[in-house]
Design goal:
Layout lengths: L4 E5 L6 H17 L8 E5 L5 H8 L5 E4 L16 H6 L2 E6 L2 H6 L6 H13 L3 E6 L3 H5 L3 H13 L11 E4 L13 H19 L2 H4 L1 E4 L5 H8 L6 E4 L6 H13 L1
Parallel strand pairs: 1-2, 1-8, 2-3, 3-4, 4-5, 5-6, 6-7
Length: 258
């Protein structure tokens, strides 16, 4: 049985005192739920400059540390980039790769070839890549969702050797439902996750059944329970709702119930 993972992506938000308080409040909230908190895994992905202080703040909590990005070379003259080994030294376990904002918002957007190299680099040092995939509104309206997911999964994992579900996480981001006021229905989320599951099983064999697939489309406390209850939804990648302890803990509670 896949243990649900809920990961907070703070993006470029919070200052250091706010970050420390948020972690403290989330820790306290999880302690209050005693053994129920063991049903799920929790990760926090802060801005890179806060990785070391957040690693300290998370000590002994069982909450994993994640990074929002990584470079595809292990070292070299790449000003401003972060090597996967550097992230590992801070205590990072998970690293987001191909988040929709890096694909579509930041210019120039990252292409699938670049993202594949990042996946390889992360795996090389023992980090767990969280490969983000998903279709835009134009692609969904053109009935291209399945094709987009198939291409992004195949391209992102090309040449990799994944022998167990713990080596990889996929995050499905319906780009059309992020910050637009539109929400994917539970059925739409499950359909996309089931498609990704089939692609993973085809590519990875038995390991494809073990890989966790997170939902990353504006997850909130009021929609989390029904979405996280879907059979192929194994947790969430949470953006704005992870910036306040109350809303993030509400999503975590929904994951525990699901």
């Amino acid at each position: 049985m896949r243990r649900p993972l809920v990961a907070a992506n703070w993006k470029m938000n919070l200052n250091l005192p706010q970050a420390r308080k948020l972690v403290a409040d989330v820790r306290d909230g999880l302690v209050a739920r005693d053994e129920r908190a063991l049903r799920i895994e929790v990760a926090i992905c802060p801005p890179a400059v806060y990785l070391f202080p957040m690693a300290k703040a998370l000590e002994g909590s069982g909450i994993a540390l994640g990074a929002q990005n990584v470079f595809y070379e292990l070292e070299g003259a790449f000003t401003g980039e972060l090597a996967p080994g550097m992230l590992a030294e801070t205590g990072v376990r998970y690293v987001l790769i191909g988040h929709s904002e890096r694909r579509h918002v930041l210019s120039p957007g990252e292409d699938d070839w670049t993202l594949n190299r990042k996946v390889h680099a992360a795996l090389r040092v023992g980090l767990v890549p969280v490969l983000c995939v998903g279709e835009t509104l134009d692609q969904r309206q053109a009935d291209q969702t399945d094709d987009v997911l198939a291409f992004q999964v195949a391209a992102g994992l090309s040449g990799t050797r994944i022998s167990g579900g713990g080596q990889l996480v996929i995050a499905y981001e319906p780009v059309w439902a992020i910050g637009t006021g539109q929400n994917a229905t539970p059925e739409q989320a499950q359909n996309a996750h089931a498609r990704i599951r089939a692609l993973l099983k085809q590519r990875l064999g038995a390991a494809g059944e073990e890989v966790r697939i997170l939902y990353g489309g504006s997850l909130k406390p009021d929609n989390a329970r029904v979405i996280l209850a879907q059979p192929d939804v194994d947790g969430g990648l949470v953006g704005g709702a992870s910036l306040k302890a109350e809303s993030f803990l509400g999503i975590l509670a929904a994951a525990m119930e699901a």
